[in-house]
Amino acid sequence: MEFERNPEVLQVKSFIRWTACLLFLGAATVLIGMWQLRARDAMAEWDPDAARKAAKPIPIRTVKVSARDFDETVGGTVVTMPAQSATVTIPPRSGQVIDREVLAVNCVEGGVVQKGQVIATFLPRLFEHTVKQREAAVRQTKLTLDAYRGLTTSKAITKLQVAEAEVNAETAELELALAKRDLELCSMISPIDGVVQELNVVPQMRVGNGAVVAVIHQLDPIYIQMDYPMERLDSLQVGQAAEIELDAFSQETFEGKVIRIAPVVSTKTRVVPITLEVANPDNRIKAGISGFARVKCMKSGATAIPSVAVIKKQRKAMVFCVEGDRAKIREIQTGETVGTGEVEVLKGLNIGDEVVIYGHDSLNENDLVNGDWRKWTRRGEGRVARASVTGF
């Protein structure tokens, strides 16, 4: 107890404590200074503004532009239309019969008819009489012609009279053929398989020449006209598959194919009409239905880059490219989105160009950059490991 109360001993202990505190504070100050230096270096390597001030490269990640083939889907509005249509009319008469009387009608509006099926029949009596009259005229002209030819040997008739007899015989045969055609047309038949849209006759009705008896549309297969964008014509071909969604069948998707491409592009709408063919059993799909179609195309030799690389400013699209060790901004023209997270580049980039996909949002024109992302990511991992060992 007396030893501990000795002033000299207490003085020595106090000196040791103060010395230890000073040494600890000094060591802490040195470590804090080292941490600050490391943090400053790290900021210069990772922070774009700090790196720019320190004239050090800004870490970025890039991809190279390459040509490749990819599938694309091009959409457009559509409207359904008949595969073909037929208007059944009464042709001009060849005889004296002015009107036809309808005897029977064998179909209804909206009904289905087959090719060759009789739609309506007319009373044939007057046409049968016309045929008999024309047959008699043919026999008479032939007899006259034979008689004239027999008289030529005795020179009792001239060659001109013989020629007139030949013309009369040919005319009579032509009129007979027309009369037989009129008789055949007493049964009006459907020229196509389809659905009757219009039926303009009823039994005992009298109709004149040129009257429309019926209008028929073929709906199986049904055709679909699509407005295809002009910018995608390079990837369009006959036979390509298409998916169609129609407003009247919201829960269904129909499969079709391209069968025809119009030769003229509309300069106002910048679209080209194309025709799709869709199977339509039982005529479920009617003509005049609107909808939307997607045509599946294969585009070869095209360029696409990750969409994250594109910088949008107003109506312009730009990317940062690496030239040497500097960042250069380029304006590009983009197309449709292809695949997942990719966009097609139509203009502004060449095969082999190096495009920035990470760090481009903080770059300026002509910035010094470091595209060796594997190196600077490992360097960052090493710094984290050292910091964990030192406690900082």
UniProtKB/TrEMBL annotation:
CC annotations in GO: efflux pump complex
Q: Does the keyword Coiled coil apply?
A: yes
Where would I find the YknX-like C-terminal permuted SH3-like domain in this sequence? 303-365
Keywords carried by this UniProt record: Coiled coil, Membrane, Transmembrane, Transmembrane helix
Q: In this record, what's one Pfam family?
A: YknX_C
Q: What's an example of a GO molecular-function annotation for this chain?
A: efflux transmembrane transporter activity
In the UniProt record, does the keyword Membrane occur? yes
Where does the sequence pass through the membrane?
A: 15-35
In terms of domain of life, where is this protein from?
A: Bacteria
Q: What are the residue boundaries of the CusB-like beta-barrel domain, all occurrences included?
A: 222-291
Record InterPro entries: Beta-barrel_RND_2, RND_pump_MFP, YknX-like_C
Taking the record's annotation, the residue ranges forming a coiled coil are 155-182
Q: Which NCBIfam families match?
A: RND_mfp (TIGR01730)
- What's the family? Belongs to the membrane fusion protein (MFP) (TC 8.A.1) family.
Q: Any idea what this protein is called?
A: Toluene efflux pump periplasmic linker protein TtgG
